[in-house]
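Researcher: Can you fold this with heme C in place?
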Amino acid sequence: MKAILGVILLALVAGAVPMAFAWRSALEPVDPPPPASFDRASIMRGAQLALIGNCNVCHTAASGPAYAGQRPVHTAFGTIYATNITPDPETGIGRWSEAAFTRAMREGVDRRGRHLYPAFPYDHFTKASDEDLKSLYAFLMTREPVRAETPANQLPFPLNLRPLIVVWKWLFFEPSRFEPDPAQSAELTRGAYLVRSLGHCGACHTPRNVLGAEKKTQFLSGGEAEGWHAPALNADSPSPRAWTADSLYRYLRHGLVEQRGIPAGPMAPVVHNLAAAADDDVRAIASYIASLMPAVRPERERSIDVLIASIQRPEPGATRVAQSGTDPQSLRQGELLYQGACAFCHDQGRQVSSSGEAMYLPLSTALYLPTPRNLIRIVSEGITPPDGAPGRWMPAFEGAFTDEQLAALAIYLRARYTDAPAWTKVGDAVRKARE
Ligand code: HEC
Ligand code: HEC
Ligand code: HEC
């Protein structure tokens, strides 16, 4: 926090930020445009783009009306409430012209000229095409207007001062357009465009610096979202089985792919939306992500096969106790817990769609991540199956294990079912995941 304030103060004292840049004019309010003034094809296109942009995920409160806002977005700096983006003239965007909407999406400035916090991923949306923004506007302005005031943000002084957002923008943000690579196929170009603009995959999958800006040179190399680790989607992909364009497509579209995990945590609503988005767009996203990932490596696939075979034919000493930093006491405790609470389902392998059979854990990306956080969250919160996957349900173990037992389980699973180095500071990760 001190570092953040330091940078902000320095920038201000040095007068580095031109004040002309800081001040933005208000745009005239308009009478809410009648829904009949929008083209039907444009509204439908906007509906599909809104799914890819996850607008509903942030802008809808738990069991609240769609797009009416009031949902808290938790950031490392405090809580910012997503606003009401229904066309209500008083509390929503009913009086916003298309120009005002486009400016918000491209520049992070609201109709009245106030700077918006980058918790609203306009650093990605800025790359959307004019036509796509027009369609999104048509879609939002034809929703049912809902009267809903946005609660006040909970941010410490001085981060609660909106004019200071300009320092952040000056350091890290530039309105820009998507620049296609002329050497790429039409499908990869479309995929790259969606991933980088409306899809904002990098908002979760790219690491951020202390000021909360994405590290541009580490695009999709693994980030954080709501206390979960979002795995790398590039050459650093930790997935035990290599992804392909086809398996990615099925994961993003249906959430259930053989030999791979089910989307959990903040990825679950993303996949829920993509299930209803335009099919070509989901295919394009999958092809582009696959193009960033490593190719299938036969020796890697074989080592996973060996780990799976060792579940089916347990051999003495199969647990590599020699793994550096692994404490034998935790391994024994973890093994007992696994046998008692997990093996019943997970040693079966995922068969058709009946309950009581679940994926072999050597296939779970959660065990290969740089942190045990996702594993601990999955065990605590369980898995709620994605639509259309009956029986793919795992109970929540919240409260069933002590912190020490959860840590032992994580240490054991990493040693027993992966060939990755032991996790460090497992106890800290358990405490954090439990907060
Ligand atoms: C990760 C969460 C998140 C997602 C996804 C998201 N928004 Fe937002 N949005 C926010 C937050 C938070 C704010 C409020 C920012 C502030 O108060 O400074 C906001 C503000 C806005 C505003 C400004 C409204 C106002 O009253 O000032 C518009 C317009 C908007 N979002 C549209 C969209 C659209 C369209 C999409 C989908 C393409 C979208 N948002 C997706 C979090 C999100
Ligand atoms: C709100 C944050 C968020 C957004 C936005 C997001 N993801 Fe994810 N994603 C996650 C998290 C967290 C996980 C890990 C969840 C799990 O283990 O089930 C994940 C997992 C994945 C995985 C599985 C990786 C593996 O090796 O197991 C893929 C593939 C993926 N995301 C692709 C995407 C793509 C493509 C987009 C953009 C269209 C996207 N994600 C947008 C948070 C996000
Ligand atoms: C009633 C059966 C059942 C029990 C008991 C159970 N699980 Fe699961 N688990 C599942 C199902 C179903 C999934 C979803 C994946 C699938 O379809 O195979 C899952 C998913 C997971 C995943 C995520 C896999 C991924 O990458 O998406 C992990 C990790 C996991 N379980 C660990 C555990 C641990 C550790 C225990 C014991 C504390 C446990 N499970 C107990 C059924 C179970």
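Model: Folded with heme C in place. The mean pLDDT is 91.
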